[in-house]
Design brief:
By secondary structure, the chain is of the alpha+beta class. Helix content is 54%, strand content 14%. Helix 2 links the parallel strand 2 and strand 3.
Length: 85
């Protein structure tokens, strides 16, 4: 096989990996946001979610520390989430 062929296969592999990571990011963010939106607690429904390699970051304002804990609890058991910030 030529060097060019090997380079193309490596580029294709990296492209597929990057694409898979983007799909996973979107899926995890959607799932977390959906859980927050369905919460009976109106205060946490607008919290935003950002996911990257097992880390789920919740962003936004809630009116109490208790509401912050409820938001974290709502998303803590999502498969693939290792840590919540």
């Amino acid at each position: 096989m030529s060097v060019i062929g090997e380079q193309r296969r490596a580029e294709d592999s990296r492209s597929r990996t990057k694409h898979s990571a983007l799909i996973e990011k979107a899926r995890m963010e959607h799932l977390a946001a959906k859980r927050l939106r369905r919460s009976p607690y109106h205060d946490i429904r607008g919290v935003l979610c950002e996911y990257h390699e097992g880390l789920l970051r919740l962003r936004g304002r809630v009116h109490s520390y208790y509401m912050k804990q409820l938001a974290q609890t709502a998303v803590q058991d999502i498969d693939g989430v290792v840590e919540i910030l």
